[in-house]
Write a structure and sequence with these properties.
Layout lengths: L7 H4 L12 H14 L5 E5 L6 E9 L5 E9 L6 E5 L15 H4 L3 E5 L36 H19 L4 E7 L1 H12 L5 E5 L6 H7 L5 H10 L4 H9 L3 H5 L6 E6 L7 H10 L4 E6 L8 H15 L3
Helix pairs in contact: 2-4, 4-5, 6-7
InterPro entries: AB_hydrolase_fold, AXE1_dom, CE7
Protein name: Cephalosporin-C deacetylase
Organism: Actinacidiphila bryophytorum
Length: 317
């Protein structure tokens, strides 16, 4: 895939205006207060995965409206970790199998792998029935008519409650939010909404600069928005207003924890300009690793160890 977005010199300057509405902070304060007010406590049961070098737990915690969300907690065997990484999943991806998530624990870091409910590999059902109205197949336009009804309101609430659960369950001194693609967008949401984060690790993050993404990318998930508006052009401004409540650059502007971003300049799924939009608005200390010849896989295994080293630089383990 050749470079199809802005050239690097323009990416270095690309900082679109924030899109948050006047009630953005109140919207999220009320949403999270309601979720926490629904009650429930996280619970973890140890499971035998056949991997002897780590301890693994099957976690259930209350998310949106107190509904149960699942996750794997994989920890260094027999000891307490100083860091815990709360990792969110990409679009259409659930938590998978526990033995797929060993790197962080092998490096001495607790790893809480959060399920994305309703996605293809997720093993917790999507029981939220609030989204209604016309929408394109997929998740991006479910509830496009109203931010209170949009699917992403529920998913982002789950992400913040996952950070709450990790703080209660793991007992780690330091917490990081991380994830690739949609997971990176959720990490950015957590960076602006959750309290007490010590690092943020968004890789080729999705859910940023929605209007540009829908104009530039011809791949799902941004394509869902363009397809929807091709059929219902009269709903364009309402749709982008709704999506502004879930835009990573609006959350990034409210963040304070040190962050390590990654971006791939040949990425057709999350065009690099959308990543830079969030990066340039990120309010905390930040750095970005650029992979000029990579697509949506980003920095892959190389960047996985870059994340570990970044955490080590913030608080050795």
């Amino acid at each position: 895939m050749p470079v199809v977005d802005l050239p690097p010199t323009e990416l270095d300057r690309y900082k679109p205006d924030l899109t948050h509405e006047p009630d953005f902070d109140a919207f999220w304060r009320d949403t999270l207060d309601a979720a926490r007010g629904a009650g429930g406590r996280p619970a973890a049961g140890r499971v035998d995965t056949g991997v002897r070098a780590v301890d693994t737990y099957d976690v259930t915690f209350p998310g949106w409206a107190g509904e149960p969300v699942r996750g794997w907690l994989v920890v260094p065997k027999g000891r307490t970790a100083r860091w815990c990484v709360v990792e969110f999943q990409g679009y259409g991806v659930g938590r998978g199998r526990a033995h797929e998530h060993l790197l962080y624990a092998a490096c001495g870091i607790a790893h809480f792998v959060v399920d994305a409910r309703g996605h293809s590999r997720g093993d917790t059902g999507d029981v939220s029935a609030l989204s209604s109205g016309p929408h394109e197949p997929g998740f991006m336009t479910q509830g496009a008519h109203d931010p209170h009804a949009h699917y992403l309101r529920r998913l982002i609430t789950d992400a913040v409650r996952a950070v709450d659960a990790a703080r209660e369950l793991v007992g780690a001194e330091l917490l990081a939010a991380a994830g690739p693609s949609q997971g990176g967008g959720l990490a950015l949401a957590a960076s602006g909404l959750a309290t007490g984060l010590d690092a943020v690790l968004p890789d080729v993050p999705f859910l940023c600069d929605h209007r540009r993404g829908a104009l530039v990318s011809d791949r799902v998930p941004f394509r869902e928005v363009a397809q929807f508006l091709r059929k219902r052009p009269e709903l364009a401004e309402q749709t982008f207003r709704t999506l502004s409540y879930f835009d990573g650059m609006n959350f990034a502007a409210r963040a304070s924890a040190p962050a390590l971003f990654s971006v791939a300049l040949m990425d057709p799924v999350c065009p690099p300009s959308t990543v830079y939009a969030a990066y340039h608005h990120y309010a905390g200390e930040k750095e970005i690793r650029v992979y000029p010849f990579n697509e949506h896989e980003g920095g892959g295994a190389l960047h996985a160890m870059a994340r570990v080293e970044f955490l080590r630089g913030l608080g050795d383990f």
